[in-house]
Amino acid sequence: VFPSLAQAQASVANEAYRELGQPSVFLFCPTEYCGSLCSPSPSQSRYLLTLGQELLPGIGVIWTGPKVVSQELSAALLEEVEGVLRRRPVIWDNLYANDYDCRRVFLGPYTGRVPGLVPRLCGLLLNPNCELQANFIPIHTLGSWFQSELGSCAHPDRTGTAAAAAQGDSQGLREGSYSPQEALELALRDWVAEINRQASEPGG
Fold first, then answer.
1. Considering the entire predicted model, what is its pTM?
2. What is the pLDDT of residues 105-161, one digit of tens each?
3. Banded model confidence at residue 173, pLDDT cuts 50, 70, 90
4. CA dihedral defined by 53, 40, 71, 143, rounded to 10 degrees?
5. Closest Cα to residue 141, out of 178, 167, 104?
6. Structural domains in the chain?
7. Distance between CA atoms of 139 and 117, rounded to whole angstroms?
8. How far is Cα 49 from Cα 107, in angstroms, rounded to an integer?
9. Which H or E element spans position 81?
10. Contact, 46 vs 35, CB < 8 A?
11. Which of 16, 40, 72, 139 has its CA 20 to 30 A from that of 201?
């Protein structure tokens, strides 16, 4: 019926999107969802080009970065993806995912995401560790990164200053761009406080 996989997927996605009344959030995960799966590259992928042309504008497209688990995200790559998809991508961030190797747990700060990414994104989803309690630091430091990004967007000439001021001295973040080390120290302090709070409760 369809001349290509991309056209088939776009047709089904568009039909479902219309049937649901074109909701404000409707996400589509493509078969080529990262740079390493694109042939020969994201900007030259016939599959992605077709999706960009055929998918209705209100449908968000998920992207994981250069790889399935991307150590770094750059504005240049996101700009390339936006160009071919004709929309800003929704990042599905697998930085902390450990469902592919349950022997590993990732407890470091949110890092490898250069400042100024938010204007290039339609959204960001964090795929966390399978172990619930192990995600305090990932989610906490993601919040610090996002606050820094909001401050950077509000005041491009003072990266992160507004966010740091809004958070107050109690959070311990210095003025300026996001610091993974400072975010980690803040998260650890808050995590210890949360552990102590839970331990003091009846039955804790």
1. 0.83
2. 999 999 999 888 999 999 999 999 999 989 999 999 999 999 999 877 765 554 433
3. low
4. 0
5. 178
6. 5-153+178-200 (3.20.20.80)
7. 18
8. 37
9. helix 75-85
10. no
11. 139
